[in-house]
Predict the 3D structure of the following.
Amino acid sequence: MALLVAFRVDLGEKPEASLALTDVEGTWQGSDGGRLTVRADGSADLERVTRPGQECGQSIGAAGRTYTGPAKWVFDTYPDEKPGIRFDYQGPATAKSCKVYLVVFPLQNGAKGFLPQDPDGVQYVRSTEPKG
């Protein structure tokens, strides 16, 4: 393991930095109309978020292609992506466990991210307004 880290440093790569609560807390607005509200207590609200798949216990009709409702969140990394957070909620039709990932890119003036299950080009931007 130490050799791998040393090799990455020699190549100029930096190991992925961990995210902090200040990188993710707040309201994230999607360019497709989705919205994520992330709270410090681990709770979240998802609005019009593209569902990750039919296996979540949601209908396959047009109305079932998005989820709106409560969720819990934790720091996690989607495979082959940068660190982010994972939202867990129960699918409304069958109460099966569903997972939605937000890959996060912290920036000096805010943060951007994307949901891997969204269509290409959909981005989320975190509000820089004070949290209330």
Remarks:
- The CA atoms of residues 58 and 92 lie 6 Å apart.
- DSSP finds two helices and eight strands in the chain.
- The helical segments are 2-10, 21-24.
- Strands lie at 26-30, 35-38, 43-50, 66-77, 83-90, 97-107, 110-114, 124-126.
